[in-house]
Structures are given as structure tokens and as C-alpha cells.
């Protein structure tokens, strides 16, 4: 492929991303400008019901801390649903004994993130006005965080999902302040990632996607759009769901007072073959599901040329710059296997697909 042709294809795909972003901003610009202001912390006399859904998998301590943090919220009209995702360490039954005021759902196996939390959404949606998905390794930083998120959602009729700011645990360093979709790379870009919080994200703002670690969803969205996409085992479901919600004429907002501490653990290494495989499977699946067919064909052609020519060198450089020891040939094997396993007739990533490179603990 000639350089000019390659550039033309790239620009064509990039243009679609700009067009999509422009339409999203344009359709709500009047709403954003007319509704900016300070969120009231004052409770409403008739508070909406919020279902807080926490997924547990072999992690008693983090889930316990998350439950305690939720109980301390000043917004009292909420029910906590613990979905145990096939834990084998007894943490699910232990938590059920210790927290009888919570609702418990026990999955027989590890279903992944989307399929796991969907069990909780199904159980809660008809009894709740809002669904809050919250990672079990997150704790609310302030007592009025949930109140502020609900107030924003109630005051903006177009709000389908509300996200917030997620900090690295007990620091002022941002892990995510929501984000936007990068259609050329097929991934979400987190606002503020690894930045010290200087107030740049202390405003109510429409965003492109909300992290699944802290996602307040209107029950109307669940009725209109459906559940989280179970085609992903873990990762990328938050991008996909955010895109579907936005395309259904809802908007996504960041609430600056909706803040949690996230204990970002070393659950995987950046160049672990399972992580690399899952990342590229998700990338391909996300683009296949969400790009128009013509743009998907262009994007896939560019991606394949890149993967065959430049990607190995790029990964080798990244490994060298990291503090990990990894074999670039093994990493590329995971990438190539992900490309080979991408199946248009059965587009989904399953646990056993990821575990071909080693069991998940």
C-alpha cells in the first residue's frame, strides 16, 4: 500500500470520529450552557431509590471496605447489592453472614464483569430509579458523594449516566475523570489519567464515556438500551455501553463531587499475555460492533498493516522503557492469537479464550 493511500484511509477513519464527537457535543451544547452551576447537597423530601451494585470475586477485604463506605453516605435511600462472582475463597458467604441488610446474589462461576453485574441490575432495576456500579476496590472519599451524583441526574433530564473522579487510593492523583473515545485507536482515553488534580476537572461536563468503576445509570436507560454488553469478559464494556447510551439520545456527565478512592492493584502486568490478548480482542470487538461497516473495513485494513509492520517494534520499545521483563515474541504471539480469534460470526470474548495463556486466579 502506498504512503498516500495509507494516509487517505487513516484520514477517512479519523474524520468519522470527529463527526461523531461533533454531533455529540452539538446536540447538548444548549443543555450544558443552560444548566451549569453548583449542585445542591440538600436532600430531597422524596429521594429516588439507588441500587449500589458491587461485584465480589475472591476479595473479602476490599468488598467489606466498599460496603462500609457505602453505608456511610449521607444519601440514605439506597440498597446495596453484592454479586459474588463465583468466589472460591468463601468471601461471598462470609460477607452474606456479616451484612444481612445487603442483598446477595451468588453466581456459580466467574462470569466476567458485565455478565456478573448484569445479574445485580436485573434484580434491582424494577425497584430502583438509579443503578450505581461501583468497583469493590473503591471507597467514597466524602459522605455526600452519592447525593451530588443523584442531584445532577435529577436536575438534568437528558442525563443517562453520571460518572465522577476516581483517585489513586488516598492521593490527589487522578486515575480517571471519565473520558472520550479514540476511534482511530479503538479505545477509551481517560481524562486526567496519572495527573495530579489541579482543579482542571472540577466542572460539570458532558463526556464520551464513564468508567465502569463508578457509573450511576438511570433505570430508564436500562429499559431503553438494555444491560451491559456481555460480549466482553472484562474491559471495554464501559466504552461500548457509553456509546450505546449516547446514541440513544441520552448524555453522559461528569459530576466533580462524585469522588472515590481506587486501590489500583497489580492484578496484572502490562505485558502479561492474558492482558495483551484481552486488550486486542476487546479493541477488535469494540470497533467491529460500533463502527459503520465501511469505516470498520478501512480501520481493520490499517490495523492489520500496522500489526504486520510497526507494532512489534513499538512493543519492544515499550517493554524496554518499562520495569517489566517480557519477551516481545510472546507478547506478539498474544496479539496475533487475538487477531486470529476475532470471529465475526461469534463476536465475543470468553473466559476460556483469555485462559489459554494461563488461568485467572
Automatic annotation (TrEMBL):
GO function term, MF aspect, one: glycosyltransferase activity
Key words, A-Z: Glycosyltransferase, Membrane, Transferase, Transmembrane, Transmembrane helix
TM regions (residue ranges): 294-311
Keyword Transmembrane: yes
InterPro entries assigned: Glyco_trans_2-like (IPR001173), Nucleotide-diphossugar_trans (IPR029044)
Biased composition, class Basic and acidic residues, residue ranges: 339-354
Keyword ATP-binding: no
Region (Disordered): 337-361
Highest taxon in the source lineage: Archaea
Domain Glycosyltransferase 2-like: 52-181
Record family assignment: Belongs to the glycosyltransferase 2 family.
Protein name: Glycosyltransferase
Organism whose genome encodes this protein: Halosegnis rubeus
Amino acid at each position: 500500500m502506498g504512503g498516500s493511500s495509507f494516509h487517505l484511509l487513516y484520514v477517512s477513519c479519523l474524520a468519522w470520529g470527529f463527526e461523531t464527537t461533533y454531533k455529540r457535543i452539538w446536540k447538548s451544547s444548549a443543555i450544558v450552557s443552560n444548566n451549569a452551576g453548583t449542585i445542591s447537597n440538600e436532600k430531597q423530601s422524596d429521594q429516588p431509590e439507588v441500587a449500589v451494585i458491587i461485584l465480589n470475586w475472591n476479595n473479602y477485604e476490599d468488598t467489606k471496605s466498599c460496603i462500609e463506605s457505602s453505608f456511610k453516605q449521607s444519601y440514605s435511600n439506597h440498597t446495596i447489592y453484592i454479586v459474588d462472582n463465583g468466589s472460591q475463597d468463601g468471601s461471598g458467604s462470609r460477607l452474606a453472614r456479616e451484612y444481612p441488610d445487603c442483598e446477595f446474589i451468588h453466581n456459580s462461576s466467574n462470569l466476567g464483569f458485565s455478565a456478573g453485574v448484569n445479574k445485580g441490575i436485573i434484580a434491582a432495576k424494577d425497584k430502583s430509579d438509579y443503578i450505581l456500579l461501583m468497583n469493590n476496590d473503591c471507597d467514597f472519599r466524602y459522605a455526600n458523594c452519592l447525593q451530588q451524583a443523584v442531584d445532577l441526574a435529577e436536575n438534568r433530564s437528558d442525563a443517562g449516566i453520571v460518572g465522577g473522579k476516581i483517585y489513586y487510593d488516598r492521593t490527589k492523583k487522578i486515575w480517571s475523570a471519565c473520558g472520550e473515545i479514540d476511534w482511530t485507536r479503538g479505545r477509551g482515553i481517560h481524562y486526567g489519567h496519572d495527573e495530579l488534580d489541579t482543579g482542571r476537572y472540577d466542572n460539570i461536563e458532558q463526556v464520551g464515556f464513564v468508567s465502569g468503576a463508578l457509573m450511576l445509570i438511570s433505570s430508564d436507560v436500562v429499559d431503553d438500551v438494555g444491560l451491559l454488553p456481555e460480549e466482553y469478559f472484562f474491559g471495554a464494556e464501559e466504552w461500548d455501553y457509553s456509546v450505546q447510551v449516547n446514541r440513544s439520545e441520552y448524555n453522559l456527565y461528569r459530576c466533580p463531587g462524585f469522588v472515590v478512592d481506587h486501590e489500583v492493584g497489580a492484578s496484572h502486568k502490562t505485558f502479561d499475555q492474558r492482558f495483551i490478548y484481552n486488550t486486542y480482542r476487546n479493541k477488535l470487538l469494540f470497533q467491529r460492533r460500533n463502527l459503520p461497516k465501511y469505516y470498520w473495513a478501512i480501520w481493520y485494513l490499517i490495523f492489520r498493516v500496522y500489526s504486520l509492520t510497526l507494532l512489534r517494534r513499538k512493543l519492544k520499545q515499550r517493554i524496554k522503557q518499562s520495569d517489566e521483563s517480557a519477551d516481545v515474541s510472546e507478547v506478539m504471539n498474544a496479539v496475533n492469537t487475538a487477531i486470529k480469534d476475532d470471529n465475526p460470526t461469534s463476536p465475543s470474548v470468553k473466559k476460556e479464550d483469555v485462559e489459554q495463556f494461563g488461568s485467572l486466579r
